[in-house]
Every structure is written in structure tokens, then in C-alpha cells.
From TrEMBL:
Every Aldehyde dehydrogenase domain range: 19-478
Stored SUPFAM superfamilies: ALDH-like
TM stretches of this protein: none
GO CC field: cytosol
Alphabetical list of Pfam families matching this protein: Aldedh (PF00171)
Coiled-coil ranges per UniProt: none
The protein's name: Succinate-semialdehyde dehydrogenase/glutarate-semialdehyde dehydrogenase
Active site, UniProt feature: E256
GO annotation, biological process: gamma-aminobutyric acid catabolic process
Family indicated by similarity: Belongs to the aldehyde dehydrogenase family.
Organism expressing this protein natively: Sediminitomix flava
């Protein structure tokens, strides 16, 4: 790979300020999902290295937590500056191991870095409170303190931003971190560690555990009482498992799990804008995000018009190698993902759906999938209940506001939701009625470092980004002064 800073490409894990091999010498291969070519090898750590990493993070906490907020902020800011300086390199690594088109990868790097910038600033504003006492001789003060050692387990769909979104507020608060990135995309995580080292984080503050033994590593992290907090982004099943495992040591837990986002188009919507919003929300990252529109509900008066205009626009999306000019949809992460999408489409067609575009993988590649549009979808189809995680848009017809709110909420998930309409009364009623942590109104793009990202119901808990994002890494302590 042609990089301005070749040392960004690593083959070792990063623990206690050292680049380390597995003690048994094991390594695993990292592949390019577009053509399955080998990108390199990375150390495949086991539980003994995890225990060393936890001890290192615990020692480092004593140093890092003592620094002033201003000192922590300055190092975070340096880390942000380096991410911007080497943004193109980071994006190349990202496209190579994850597949998303290069401009989109560059967008992720800037989005990821924006959390570091934001929390470098927030670090200085962790204010407590003074509360009027409950007795004449009493004074009450509230402090906010770092929770301690934090474990972060992150997925492959945003190999960069899912790390910075957790780690930046943790480091800003004074915590130290152990990151277990996805085994599909460890290189982006290690490149961030190289820049963290250059930014000047003391040893042990920032650690990356690369491994294919996810369950074992997860157990070692959750069983250890030194780890006070777990932050996880990934599948609902694994999130529930980690929450159960964290119960024995009563860790603080933040979970960002699956979604089943409804995208509603009302009769009074601007259809052109709704089409563009639906494309942005549905086909970003080839449909592999937890906030991607999963069910498009279109009101009967504009149903056929929307399908026609939407299909024409989707047809223009070019599929291919993320490094090629003009490509909008890269490969799915692996063959298993393609099989899942194939199953969801055939189930929908068997149950009466109509295919207006796509519907199959590209014959020359095992992981490229044509953008697909399916109409007349119903709640009996598996794709109405499961997260599709592919470039497939199922469209459902509805009549009334009440009916669509009920249908949209008929899921155990509650992450992102979207709707397009122009009636002010309806906008308030629908926004309040949707049981979701986030609602995009006349927009398909809601992710930003300045707003609280997160879900309700089985989509998880906790919020990432914004002024609320610090809370997940802080404990509240109250001091009661008596005898005054
Ligand atoms: P996805 O389906 O998006 O890959 P996963 O939940 O399987 O979602 O993966 C998200 C992250 O969780 C990855 O880093 C993965 O290695 C890790 N992981 C998977 N299974 C476990 C487990 N049993 N314990 C801890 N981490 C796990």
C-alpha cells in the first residue's frame, strides 16, 4: 500500500506502549473483502496477554487520571491533528480492509477524528455541582470522576469511528482503555495506535488487543474486576452476552446494538428530497450500518411515484472496488453476509414481494451485491424483522399515521428512525410517537459528534458523542460537609 506514513501499517498488537507479538507466536491474516487478497498478518493474542494489558491500563490510570484536564486535552488535540494530517493514509487502510468506497472512507476518518476534537474540548468542561444543603451546618458538593479502566469491543463496519467515538470521551474523562477491534478490520485500529503513540499518550493509556478469540478475550475482559466499564458496539446477541458476563462484577455497560430503522414517507413529503434521503440512509456502506433504513414505509398516495423515482436513482449507484473512481457501493464484508442477503430476498419474493431492481450478487465477485429495491413488502417477511446489512431496500405501503407509527414501533429494536413530511402537527406527533433513540426528520443523515447517538429497547443504552457522551465514562460522587 502506498502510504505517506508507511509505519501506519502494523502487524503487532499494542500493549503498554509496546508493539507485541502473541506469546505463542500466533498470527491471523487480514483480507481485502473486494477480492479476498491478503493484506497482511496481525498478532493473534490470547488471555494471558489480556491480563497483562489490564494490569498495564490499571497502572497507567494512576498517571493519566492525575493529569489536569488541560494536559489530557492537549494530547487528544495532537491525536486529532495527526488523524487529519494522515487522513488519506487512514482511509486507504480502511478501504483496503473493509471495502467501503475511498471517499466514504475518508468521510469516516474525518467523522472519527471529529469525536477526538470534540472530546478534547469537553475534557475541560467536566463540571460538578454545589447543592444547597439540607441542614444549616451542611454543605453539599458533587464531583465527577473517571470510572477507571475501560474495555471497548468494536465492529468492522466503522473500523475507525467506532473506536474514536468510545475512546475519545474515555480518555478525556481520565480513563485508560483496552480496545478489542473486530478481527475483520484490525489494521485501522493499529494505525490509530501508531498516531496515539506519536501524540504522546503515556504508556498503558491506550492498548489494542488484536485477536480472533473474541469470546475468550471478551470473557477475560468482563470477568476482571479491574475493568470498571465495558463499551460495546456490535450484534444484539453478543451485546446481551457481554451484559450478562458483566453482571458478576457489576460493571457499567454501554451498548450500541442492532437496529431496524423505519424510513417513512408521508403524502405531503417532498418526494425528490425523500428519495435522496432514502438513498443516503439505505446505501451508505453498502447498507452495512446499524442506522441504515431497514424498512421504507410509503403512504399510498405517493407509493408508485416514490418507487419509480427511487428505483431510477438507485440504478445509478455504481458497484465495485472501493478504490475505483465513481464507485458508490463496495463489497459486503464477507461471503456469509452475501448469503444472508440472498436468503432475505428469496424469502421476501416467496412471500409475494415484487423486485424492481437488483436481487443478486455480482457474478464476477463473491462479495459485490447489486443495489436492490423490493416493493409490496409485508410484516410476514424476515427482512421486516431482521437487520438486512446489505444494499436492499424493502418498500411497504401504508394508509394512516397511526398505522405506520404502530408498524414502525413493532420491533424489539429502537435505534434510528426517519420520516419525511411537511405538516407541523404531524411532525411533532410522529417524532414523539416513534420509539427510537434518534429521529431524522426530512433528513437521512443523522450521525455527528455534536449529537447524542444511541438507542432504546434492545438497541442498547448509553449515548456516544455530544455533551452527554462524557457521562458514560464518569461516576458521580457527592461530598457532604457537616458541622459548619
Ligand atoms: P458483527 O455481526 O457486526 O460482526 P459481532 O457482535 O459479532 O457483530 O462483532 C462485534 C465485535 O464483537 C467484534 O469485535 C467481535 O470480534 C466481537 N465479538 C464477537 N463475539 C464475541 C464474544 N462472544 N465476546 C466478546 N466479543 C465478541
Amino acid at each position: 500500500m502506498d502510504l505517506k506514513l508507511p509505519s501506519l501499517l502494523k502487524d503487532k498488537a499494542y500493549i503498554n506502549g509496546e508493539w507485541v507479538e502473541a506469546s505463542n507466536g500466533q498470527k491471523f491474516t487480514v483480507y481485502n473483502p473486494f477480492d479476498q487478497s491478503e493484506l497482511g498478518y496481525v498478532a493473534d493474542l490470547g488471555t494471558s496477554e489480556v491480563s497483562n494489558a489490564i494490569d498495564a491500563a490499571n497502572q497507567a490510570f494512576k498517571v493519566w487520571n492525575k493529569k489536569t484536564a488541560g494536559e489530557r486535552s492537549a494530547i487528544l488535540r495532537k491525536w486529532f491533528d495527526l488523524q487529519i494530517e494522515y487522513a488519506e493514509d487512514l482511509a486507504k487502510i480502511l478501504t483496503a480492509e473493509q471495502g467501503k468506497p475511498f471517499p466514504e472512507a475518508l468521510g469516516e476518518i474525518k467523522y472519527g477524528a471529529s469525536f477526538v476534537e470534540w472530546f478534547a474540548e469537553e475534557a475541560k468542561r467536566v463540571y460538578g455541582d454545589v447543592i444547597p444543603g439540607h441542614g444549616e451546618d451542611k454543605r453539599i458538593v458533587v464531583l465527577k470522576q473517571a470510572v477507571g479502566v475501560v474495555a471497548a469491543i468494536t465492529p468492522w463496519n466503522f473500523p475507525n469511528a467506532m473506536i474514536t467515538r468510545k475512546v475519545a470521551p474515555a480518555l478525556a474523562a481520565g480513563c485508560t482503555v483496552l480496545i478489542k477491534p473486530s478481527e475483520e478490520t484490525p489494521l485501522s485500529a493499529l494505525a490509530l495506535a501508531e498516531l496515539a503513540e506519536r501524540a504522546g499518550f503515556p504508556k498503558g493509556v491506550f492498548n489494542i488487543i488484536t485477536s480472533t478469540n473474541a469470546a475468550e478475550i471478551g470473557k477475560a475482559l468482563t470477568d476482571n474486576p479491574i475493568v470498571r466499564k465495558l463499551s460495546f458496539t456490535g450484534s444484539t446477541a453478543v451485546g446481551k452476552q457481554l451484559m450478562r458476563q458483566s453482571a458478576d462484577t457489576v460493571k457499567k455497560v454501554s451498548l450500541e446494538l442492532g437496529g431496524n430503522a423505519p424510513f417513512i414517507v408521508f403524502d405531503d413529503a417532498d418526494i425528490e428530497e425523500a428519495v435522496q434521503g432514502a438513498i443516503a440512509s439505505k446505501y451508505r456502506n453498502a447498507g452495512q450500518t446499524c442506522v441504515c433504513a431497514n424498512r421504507l414505509y410509503v403512504q399510498e398516495g405517493v407509493y408508485e411515484e416514490f418507487i419509480e423515482k427511487f428505483t431510477l436513482e438507485v440504478e445509478k449507484l455504481k458497484v465495485g472496488n472501493g478504490f475505483d473512481e465513481g464507485v458508490m457501493i463496495g463489497p459486503l464484508i464477507n461471503k456469509k453476509a452475501v448469503e444472508k442477503v440472498n436468503h432475505l430476498i428469496s424469502d421476501a419474493l416467496d412471500k409475494g414481494a415484487r423486485l424492481t431492481l437488483g436481487g443478486k450478487s455480482d457474478s464476477d465477485s463473491h462479495t459485490l451485491y447489486q443495489p436492490t429495491v423490493i416493493c409490496d413488502a409485508t410484516s410476514e417477511m424476515d427482512l421486516s424483522r431482521q437487520e438486512i446489512f446489505g444494499p436492499v431496500a424493502p418498500i411497504f405501503k401504508f394508509k394512516t399515521d397511526e398505522e405506520v407509527i404502530e408498524a414502525a414501533n413493532h420491533t424489539e429494536y429502537g435505534l434510528a428512525s426517519y420520516f419525511y413530511g411537511n405538516n407541523m402537527r404531524r411532525i411533532w406527533k410522529v417524532a414523539e410517537g416513534l420509539e427510537y433513540g434518534m429521529v431524522g426528520i426530512n433528513t437521512g443523515m443523522i450521525s455527528t459528534a455534536v449529537a447524542p447517538f444511541g438507542g432504546i429497547k434492545e438497541s442498547g443504552n448509553g449515548r456516544e458523542g455530544s455533551k452527554y457522551g462524557m457521562d458514560d465514562y464518569l461516576e458521580i460522587k457527592y461530598l457532604c460537609f457537616g458541622g459548619i
